[in-house]
Amino acid sequence: MEQGFFRSPKKRGRVAVLLSGRGSNFRAIHDAMLAGKINADIVLVFSNKADAPGLQTARERGLETLHLDPKAFPGREAYDAAIVEELKKREVDLVCLAGYMKIITPPFCQAFRNRIMNIHPALLPSFPGLHAQKQAVDYGVRYSGATVHFVWEEVDAGPIILQAVVPVHQDDTEETLADRILEWEHQIYPEAVRLYFEGRLEVRGRRVYILD
Q: Which terminal Cβ of the chain has fewer Cβ within 10 Å, N or C?
């Protein structure tokens, strides 16, 4: 059974953000840190894409950035091993995936077991994978939302930390639903990170308990 308490809130935490695009959730997390709501700092913003807008945003905010080209490595595991090495150099406590469009390999997951968070634009376990908002609209569900979860080896299948429920309107498109879900993503992702660095998350089996 998977079980574990998380780090003590006494020391200020160290976070790495992995992104592939604009990184709006990265900005939401960093804004919460700047506002004093999270007892941690972002020590690295990493991208698999050299032209990711999120990297430029990070530079403008005075944060360290790093890009590694996946094509320069013989395979996914070698690529992830290089990322893990960079994260360990910086003594990273928590890895936050913020629109990182690559599947994390099992060795990466094991190196940071229950220390990698992701946000998914659906109410997991419903609609995992790509285009979750389109899946929800096409399926005709009345409610969708967003899920913050720990990353395990299976895609979008790690223990759920927080969720937000968003109604699906009859005239919704993938884009309109995505916009409304994103507003909630920006609220629950920083909240999950805050709870982590307050030492209030505990994994018991597949479940995450929020401690008082």
A: C
